[in-house]
Structure formats: structure tokens, C-alpha cells
Amino acid sequence: QVQLVESGGGLVQPGESLNLACKASGNIFMINAMGWYRQVPGKQRELVARVTSSGNTDPGDSVKGRVTISRNNAMSIAYLQMDSLKPEDTAVYYCNAVGSSSSSPVPRPFDIWGQGTQVTVSS
């Protein structure tokens, strides 16, 4: 079984930066992509940014130019930095990982989510 543990978040002042981390653990065979999504009540979950195992990144349209995502493959950790935060960035941020777990006789695919971390941008 594979789990995700998120860290970071909380209350952030407008204009400041946000740093989040997500660590995957468990019976991991391979992680193809890790990413961050966010959701506010009444709206669909939207992509913030994701990164593949080869380092290719894909930022969400609403945060392009303000977000950096990176990944430590050896440690199965994804890092997110978002700059110039605005009140509309307030949301629950969720980590996602897609890959396959170590199992016999063949690896099993997974697509899992973390429990989410609240980010509030307010003065």
C-alpha cells in the first residue's frame, strides 16, 4: 500500500510565498507523476502543478508564472513553491501520485490522494 503525507500550508500573507511538500511511502515500484491540486467549496478540483519522473512539469493555467514544482525521485518527495499569493489562492491543496506498487507477480497501478492541507491567504 502507498500513502502520501503532505506538509506545509496554513495562513499566508498576500504577496508571500507558499511551500508545500508531499512524501510518498510504502510499497512503491515506480511513481510516474506527482502533483498538487486545489479545491474550494462548490468548485471542481483544479491542477496547480505536476511533475513527471523525468522532470517534465505542467503548471495549472490559473497559477502559471507563479508556481515551481520539483521532485526528489530517490526520496519520492514532490515540492511546490507558489509565489505572490493572492486571497483567491485560498483552498485545500491536495497531493496526488500516479504510479505502480510493488506486488507479486506484477506491479499494480495506483492513483492516490493525500488528505489535503488548508492554505489561507489573508492579511
Comma- or semicolon-separated keywords:
123 residues, mainly beta, 7-stranded mixed β-sheet, 4-stranded antiparallel β-sheet, 11 strands, 0% helix
Shape: elongated
Count the E strands. Answer: 11
> Percent helix among the residues?
under 10%
Mean model confidence by pLDDT: 95
Please count the helical segments: 0
Radius of gyration: 15 Å
Strand percentage: over 45%
Q: Regions with pLDDT < 50 over 5+ consecutive residues?
A: none
Alpha-beta content class: mainly beta
> What's the story with the biggest beta sheet?
7 strands, mixed
Order of helices and strands: EEEEEEEEEEE
C-alpha termini separation: 40 Å
Write up what this structure looks like.
The protein is mainly β. The chain is built from no helices and eleven strands. The protein has strands at residues 2-8, 10-12, 18-26, 28-39, 46-52, 57-59, 67-72, 77-82, 91-101, 108-113, 117-121. The model has no long low-confidence stretch (mean pLDDT 95).
